């Protein structure tokens, strides 16, 4: 799925969730609130979920884009996931996490495909493909060597320690991003709460002005 399709799907899901919560809020306020200014409360109760969830999503999305650009890792939304390798290469997944690619970060050119297991040794990338063949890739020279089996790879490189490519990606992404995405989530939540507060205050001011007129 493309990024725009994923965002569109998320927006639809947020709309449905906000609508359900808004209806519940309307019913609770209508039947349980015996105070004054019920119409105002009904409007705020129904609108608040839409404003809160959409603003949270947008703030988090923009923050994740910023982290992705700064840290050179994917932001967790879309159909492609990647982490950097040496010399401006990246380990890339497209659509499915079972197999990965080694690609150039600047133009996306794929140099090695169908990778299931991988090991990074500075500028040398060792790996296994889903065809049970093995390879080494030099990120300095772009030299790609193919090996028929692990024994042949072990003769060329000592102490092979291949690990699942997606596990490698996950661990490296967490190591690079650290707590940045968590910080983005916290800041986005606080910003969303502040926006809800501002919305409530502005609405109350406008309501009082109209009432006084």
Short description:
The protein is α+β, with helices and mostly antiparallel strands and 213 residues long. The protein is built from five helices and eight strands.
Features:
about 210 residues, about 20% strand, elongated
The H/E string reads HHEEEEEEEHEHH
Number of helices: 5
How much is the radius of gyration in Å? 25 Å
The helix/strand class is alpha+beta
How would you describe the shape? elongated
Q: Assembly type of the shown chains?
A: single chain
Look at the structure and give the mean pLDDT.
Answer: 90
- Main sheet attributes: strand count, strand direction, barrel closure: 8 strands, antiparallel
| Uncertain regions spanning at least 5 consecutive residues | none
Residue share in β-strands: 15-25%
Helix content: 40-55%
End-to-end CA span: 53 Å
Tally of DSSP β-strands: 8
Q: What would you say this structure looks like, in words?
A:
The protein contains 5 helices and 8 strands; from the N terminus they run ααβββββββαβαα. The chain is of the alpha+beta class and 213 residues long. Strands 1, 2, 3, 4, 5, 6, 7 and 8 form an 8-stranded antiparallel sheet that branches. Helix 1 packs antiparallel against helix 2 and helix 2 packs antiparallel against helix 5. The longest helix has 34 residues. 20% of the residues are buried.
């Amino acid at each position: 799925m493309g990024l725009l399709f994923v965002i569109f799907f998320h927006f639809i899901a947020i709309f449905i969730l906000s609508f359900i919560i808004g209806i519940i809020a309307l019913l609770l306020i209508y039947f349980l609130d015996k105070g004054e200014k019920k119409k105002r409360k009904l409007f705020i109760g129904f609108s608040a979920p839409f404003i809160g969830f959409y603003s949270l999503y947008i703030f988090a999305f923009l923050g994740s884009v910023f982290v992705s650009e700064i840290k050179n890792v994917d932001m967790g939304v879309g159909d492609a996931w990647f982490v950097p390798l040496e010399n401006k290469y990246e380990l890339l997944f497209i659509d499915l996490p079972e197999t990965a690619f080694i690609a150039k970060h600047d133009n996306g050119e794929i140099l090695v495909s169908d990778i299931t297991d991988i090991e990074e040794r500075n500028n040398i990338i060792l790996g296994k493909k889903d065809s049970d063949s093995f390879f080494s890739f030099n990120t300095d020279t772009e030299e790609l060597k193919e090996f028929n089996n692990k024994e042949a790879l072990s003769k060329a490189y000592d102490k092979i320690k291949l690990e699942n490519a997606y596990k490698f990606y996950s661990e490296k992404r967490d190591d690079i991003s650290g707590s940045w995405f968590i910080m983005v989530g916290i800041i986005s939540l606080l910003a969303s709460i502040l926006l809800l507060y501002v919305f409530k205050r502005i609405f109350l001011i406008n309501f009082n002005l109209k009432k006084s007129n």
